Amino acid sequence: MIHMSERINRKLATSELLSYVGKPLPLRTLRRILNSDFRSLGVRTCIIQDPDMLKSPFKRSKFAISGWFDMDGRKMPITMNINVQNKDDLCLTKKQMNRMLFYVAQTVQHEYLHKLQRRKRPDIDKKDVKVYYSDRLSKKRVNEMVYLADPCEVDAYARDIAHEIKQFYPQLGVREALRNIGS
Prior knowledge:
The protein is α+β, with helices and mostly antiparallel strands. The chain is built from six helices and five strands. α1 (about 1-15) runs antiparallel to α3 and α3 (about 95-120) runs antiparallel to α5. The two termini are about 30 Å apart. About 15% of the residues are buried.
């Protein structure tokens, strides 16, 4: 997977998107560039106008990125969704562009890891994880707990957290960063 991280990061370091820092970036162009950059990995990009982006905690964000791996073996099994507040062009500062590229890389790596997990362990979806919870929790919260208890998600999110520590807290060691979570 380390090889894949380097490959994804190299693609983004030379991406045409970098030429749009401080300039209007049409959403169609964003989708075209990302589709071109990641087609060889089986990734397709969708742009979604999301009214929830106007609500907290996203109201200050220009975008949010999520992904999905389709286990049914389609030609393009990974979908990356870029949610935006409206259909206006994005105009990103260098810091915002770097943040977007980090989250694009993280999302593609997360979903690609699921693709590798599926390839190495085709029976993975047959394993049930027992999750203990209070009856007072909402159905939404219980579903989230069940989802996050899945061994594949634990593996993928652990990787995401490690990358975020490296990206956003480079001055801290991993142990120190983990020790200070929530403080």
